[in-house]
Amino acid sequence: MPSSVISTIGSLSARLVVKSSRESVPLPLQEIWRLRTATVLASCGSSKTRDLTIKVFMKCSKSASALRVCKEKRRLKTGLHEKLVPMVHCLETLGSKPQEVASAITKFPHILSHSVEEKLCPLLAFFEALGITEKQLGKMILINPRIISYSIQHKLSQMVEFLSSLHLSKDGMIGKVLVKHPYIMGYSVDKRLRPTSEFLKSIGLTDMDLQKVAVNYPEVLCRDVNKILKPNLSYLTSRGFGVGQIAAVVTCYPPVLIKSVSNSLEPRIKFLIDVMGRRLDEVVDYPDYFRHSLKRRLESRHKLLMRKNISCTLSEMLDCNQKKFLFKFGLVQ
Questions:
Q1: Which of 80, 103, 228, 324 has its CB 3.0 to 4.6 Å from that of 320, i.e. a possible disulfide?
Q2: Is residue 287 part of a domain?
Q3: Given pLDDT bands bounded at 50, 70 and 90, which one contains residue 141?
Q4: Pick from 89, 13, 103: which is nearest to 44 by CA?
Q5: Would you call 91 exposed, middle or buried from its count of C-beta atoms within 10 A (0-12, 13-18, 19+)?
Q6: Alpha-carbon distance 12 to 86, whole Å?
Q7: Which CA distances in Å does 16 have to 9, 47, 87, 91?
Q8: From which domain of life does this come (predicted)?
Q9: What percent of the residues of the chain are helix, what percent strand, and what percent coil, each to the nearest 5?
């Protein structure tokens, strides 16, 4: 457990005043939590936090019913010192900016319904055991505040076991995956992550390839096989890519299986063949072709090369920044 968090929790626990009031307010639950959020932040933040809180509060308080609740401040403070204030203080120790805390609470107001001692502390210890630093913990929770609601036993532990099955248990690799893409923890291992990994194996990826996918492109594991990966595979096959070629492209650039066919893959392949007059196997040699912007990179550089009647490989054309590209081909004015 990070020392700063322990210190914060300890000092807060000594000041807690537990209240058991359960008065109900005739408003939608989401709206009530947003109003509670404004009350809490205004009471315990800095001047910048309070200014930001006012903006959030006004945004969430446009309805007449919300304004009525504003007048009943006592009701809004139900459970204030029991859960809300301690949670906000702990979030502040994890966040570097007041805006981050306010944004996290706005995205997931129910984060304030969880106890620091019963929920947040065990989570912090769990993530720390995976080699995740306090700063990284803050980033994860503030990006995906729903993490607070996840069960360690029934969800997070299964996630760790799954990533371990991909041989990612060394050198804090599991922690790196979770930090890189915190939203991966929201997906079911059995319904989403494992089926996706099995599909990737079925098209030719090895265990080592899957490790690279998990570490560098964890978002690929989160996509639905039937709705996204299979349609992309079918499109690549229809354009003439062989089984081995597809495996090679996916191994080097996994996002090719999750990019939009109509907005990304098709325009780039048409430009490759119809405009540049190149072959598909050139993409197999340089799969990162699909990573580059069509307008800002592919079209602009192709035009510059055509003006000078210069021929080169895709990697020579694209695998460098603009300054090096111009210098390499003598295009500097």
A1: 324
A2: no
A3: confident
A4: 89
A5: buried
A6: 6
A7: 10, 23, 12, 17
A8: Eukaryota
A9: 75, 0, 25
